[in-house]
Amino acid sequence: MKHYSKQREAILDVLRSTDTHPTANWIYEKVREKLPNISLGTVYRNLSTLTADGAILKIEVGDGFEHFDGDISPHLHLYCRECGKIHDQTLKSDYITRVAKESGFKTDTTIYVAYGICTNCNKTIN
Amino acid sequence: MKHYSKQREAILDVLRSTDTHPTANWIYEKVREKLPNISLGTVYRNLSTLTADGAILKIEVGDGFEHFDGDISPHLHLYCRECGKIHDQTLKSDYITRVAKESGFKTDTTIYVAYGICTNCNKTIN
DNA sequence: AATAAAATCAGTAATCATTACTGATTTGTG
DNA sequence: CACAAATCAGTAATGATTACTGATTTTATT
To answer: Please, are residues A30 and A20 in contact by the beta-carbon 8 Å criterion?
Structure first.
């Protein structure tokens, strides 16, 4: 079993204790509350390692930032063009992996993104 | 009906005449064969406009580049970690839009990405 | 416990894909 | 033909992310 550094543990803790999809900088600010001397480079490096290990997900929605997700279960990311938030929706089955398998592709990670308007913003527009 | 500039038309032509998922720079080089004086900024600006209009798709797989797709039908993008190519797979139904609708989200665009190893690379490894 | 090798770190500098800017050119409208 | 609006080519600026460096911490071995 792999033993993580305290910096990597702290980053994972932050990611797993939020239901948002924070950027590297947001995570950096949050981790600094516990480890004031951690550097932004360390956050980036560990996020990269964790993503490569499959311990977290990297989500890109085209807003110029990388977003990270501590929930690695296959789920739907609803990106609202109005409020800019990424909402989660659980999935009953991993549709992508199942369909990809039909063509012989060996999937290890899946990303589902929907662009549009969320329920809350849909109410308040007009 | 909207009338596109010749630059925008040329960019769309290039995107629709390839089954790859090129970067802005690749498109720039390709369009230059027909419009030698076009600038990279023009390519970026039009790709941005076309994406906002829903005429093309922007796909991000985490390799540091934005990729563009002239095929806007909902389909699966298989990103092979070995060869770095994005393979397409057609979908019978737009699963994301259907599921997102259940929670009241109004979807206009969907992106499906699978990370893993493609059939061809799976053969040649080892 | 001591030592060496390997991994990770903080801090900072560099990168480079993308965006913003500017003055010129083209297009649309009457 | 004006006139305004849109788009352009060319270039400069941006800033999120990555790379680098020497110090510190962890792991492995004896």
So the answer is: no
Provide the whole-model pTM.
0.92
Q: Which among A62, A110, A114 has the least Cβ separation from residue B114?
A: A110
Which chain C nucleotides are covered by protein, judged by CB under 7 A?
A: 8-13, 17-21, 27-28
Calculate the dihedral angle through the C-alpha atoms of B110, B111, B114, B119, rounding to the nearest 10 degrees. Answer: 90
pLDDT in tens, B21-80: 999 999 999 999 999 999 999 999 999 999 999 999 999 999 999 999 999 999 999 999
- How many angstroms separate the most distant Cα atoms in chain B? 54
Query: CB neighbours (10 Å) of residue B110?
Result: 23
Report the C-alpha gap between A37 and A35 in whole angstroms. Answer: 6
Question: Residues A99, B91: contact at Cβ < 8 Å?
Answer: yes
Amino acid in position A31: V
